[in-house]
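[job 0417] fold request received: THO complex subunit 3
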Amino acid sequence: MMLTRPGSMASQYYQEMQESFKNNNKSREFPAHTAKVHSVAWSCDGRRLASGSFDKTASVFLLEKDRLVKENNYRGHGDSVDQLCWHPTNPDLFVTASGDKTIRIWDVRTTKCIATVNTKGENINICWSPDGQTIAVGNKDDVVTFIDAKTHRSRAEEQFKFEVNEISWNNDNDMFFLTNGNGCINVLSYPELKPIQSINAHPSNCICIKFDPMGKYFATGSADALVSLWNVEELVCVRCFSRLDWPVRTLSFSHDGKMLASASEDHFIDIAEVETGEKLWEVQCDSPTFTVAWHPKRPLLAYACDDKDGKYDNNREAGTVKLFGLPNDS
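[job 0417] inference complete; emitting structure tokens
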């Protein structure tokens, strides 16, 4: 699949990555769960991938050369695991958010749950602060709770008057961002949680937000099928990516901050060059994609799709995790 850009010189990076994906565009799927996978995330060292599922469990895989090898399944939640994330600098700890009104912190060394924190509502969004000290969790009632990662006690709780979608700290840990149902990005100071700015980002529901590892940009995805790229320092929109037709559900920057993967109910994942907005590649999917995550060191993309209705496709495993960027000859 050759992609050439009309009437402009391709950047060296663009050419290098196209060359790379020409030889490494294989996707493989790995059985992970007994129901659909909502969330995938890599540990900071890239050795492990975790997935959270509607089947109430989390799974952890080890990355071995060109495949994922299942290491463990983590049971304990009483409802769907909607989102998970790893500790920013400790590759052994991850946290899961569930509809059972708890979050759980897990340690891959002991494979045990080291903390269960009761929260007020059904949890849907979770993130770990860049300094590792705080976990923020958002629930269906638009309450965000800030939990001390060491004592596991609540530090602060904010009830918002709008529909809260995804939440994230900036890389410097001094601002907290929320995307909302009115298409805005709300920016709060941290830890004071005082409103700094409300950015009218999209004409419709602003769904997801991700910061690039270099701290230069963040991206948002919305129900109008647009991905917007923002300058962190100035909080201004730099460019938009508009190749998807359906609401953008999930985003991920590559480890070098130069590629942005975005996905929706479209049957492909768009991979864009951040600096130009050009399409670098697309990953074909059989169904809508729920979650994407670039590996923290290599151009490998983990993702999970809405597994098809069993009655049409009995031979397809439910709840698989997929990996794109593998060598064509693997």
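[job 0417] notes: DSSP finds one helix and 28 strands in the chain. The mean pLDDT is 94.
[job 0417] exit 0
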